[in-house]
Amino acid sequence: MTDDERLFDETRPLEIADQGCFFAGGHYAESDAGRTMLGQMFVQYQVPAKRRHALPVVMIHGGGQTAVNFLGTPDGRRGWADYFVANGYAVYVVDQPARGRSGFFKGYGTAASRNTDSVAERFSAPENVNRWPQARLHTQWPGGGEAGDAAFDQFYASQVESMADIAALERMMREAGSALLDRIGPAILLTHSQGGPFGWTIADARPKLVRGVLAIEPNGAPLHEVKFTGAPDWFEDEVVTRPWGITRGPLTFIPPARDSAEMNFVRQERADGPGLTRCWLQAGRARQLPNLKGIPILIVTAEASYHAPYDHCTSQFLRQAGVEHDFVRLADVGIRGNGHLMMLEKNNLDIARFLREWVEKKIK
User: Average pLDDT for consecutive 10-residue bins of the chain (364 residues)?
Assistant: First the structure.
């Protein structure tokens, strides 16, 4: 393969052998309106004319988002899905159940959404508020990052309501993701944010079909949510939302745990470095995660994201559980200034190239 073939050109037309869509998972449920379906997941796919990697990439978005995150950027550039297709990968993008093209129905309960100020503070302009120590380093959003800016308005238009019960959603994604892999065969999972725990649960359910996990700032930290308070203290523990450590629901542990109450956690006495939270990790002899062992896993964290203070805790939890993996801060490989939604930012294809090169070294 020539250097020209390996470097994605945004102006090059995509050569597609096949494309389409279908639904994975779902079950019938009775309601006041009669029998309906819940838990189904919309899947859209493209297969390149020249397949250079046997394994497809399944892209799973985060909270409030849909597959749109991977299809393009709010300022009109190509996204990660196009990048991987252009470089010879079949790509499947999904809308989580109760989201986007998967549909939100009465049986999903209450819906959650975010206003423009909270979206800008967390995603597109965190440097204007500085709730966490790294926020001031954010430089890569394509525009002003607040309502009224063209790129922000395009991005905010893509935000959707989603079910508030994330534990129930996690169960649905485990089932729908498993059904997807049963249909398409072995694949690489690329997960982002809220989608991160879904990667762990799908891999736990289908360890032979998950051949790699690219966890882009997976939902964390272990056990507690983190509240960002600004200087000087920066962080507070909020409620426990991941009682199994990195997930809301059970994983296959050895020794087994019948209930999350059997999990034993202790908080670090000191943070691992400046600007970092103190991790909640397993105390004593850590339970192991046998179904995740041996799967090539990459955890990626951006320089300026709200995940920068705590993604190392997710990495440490996995290592405690016997799951070897690579944990990479993008700044350490020369990719600077990114926030949580790095797939939409100005240097999004630099990050996509880093991910592809990691895959080609680590996953066969």
Answer: 54 90 95 88 98 97 97 97 96 97 91 94 97 98 96 96 94 98 98 98 98 97 96 96 97 96 96 97 97 98 98 98 98 98 97 97 93
Residue type, 78: R
List the beta bridge partners of residue 280: 267
- Please give the domain boundaries of the chain with CATH numbers for all domains: 3-8+17-362 (3.40.50.1820)
For the chain, what is the total number of helices (H) and then of strands (E)?
A: 9, 16
Sort 304 into a burial class: Cβ within 10 Å, 0-12 / 13-18 / 19+.
buried
SS3 content of the chain, % helix, strand, coil (to 5): 30, 25, 45
Residue 17 amino acid letter: A
Strands 265-267 and 16-24, bridge-based pairing: unpaired
What is the distance between the alpha carbons of residues 246 and 323, in angstroms, rounded to a whole number? Answer: 13
Pairing of strands 27-31, 34-38: antiparallel
Place of tokens 């309106």: 33
* Omega within 30 of 0 (cis) for the link into 74: no
Cβ 137 vs Cβ 336: under 8 Å: yes
β partners of residue 72: 78
Q: Report the alpha-carbon distance of residue 313 to residue 294 in Å, rounded.
A: 20
pLDDT for res 175: 98
DSSP-derived 3-state class of residue 167: helix
pTM over 0.90: yes
Give the whole-angstrom CA distance, residue 141 versus residue 149. Answer: 11
Q: Do 259 and 326 touch, CB atoms closer than 8 A? A: no
- Catalytic residue numbers read 193
C-alpha 207, offset from chain centre: 18
Measured from the Cβ of residue 158, the count of other Cβ atoms closer than 10 Å reads 17
Peptide bond into 126 cis (omega under 30): no
From the number of C-beta atoms within 10 Å of its C-beta (0-12, 13-18, 19+), residue 32 rates as: exposed
Per DSSP, the residues of 13-44 read: PP-EEEEEEEEE--EEEEETTEEEEES-EEEE
Q: Are 199 and 223 in contact (CB under 8 A)?
A: no
Q: What is the pLDDT at residue 8? A: 66
Q: How confident is the model at residue 332, as a pLDDT? A: 98
**Alpha helix ranges (H) inside the chain:** 3-6, 68-71, 80-86, 116-119, 150-157, 166-184, 196-205, 311-320, 348-362
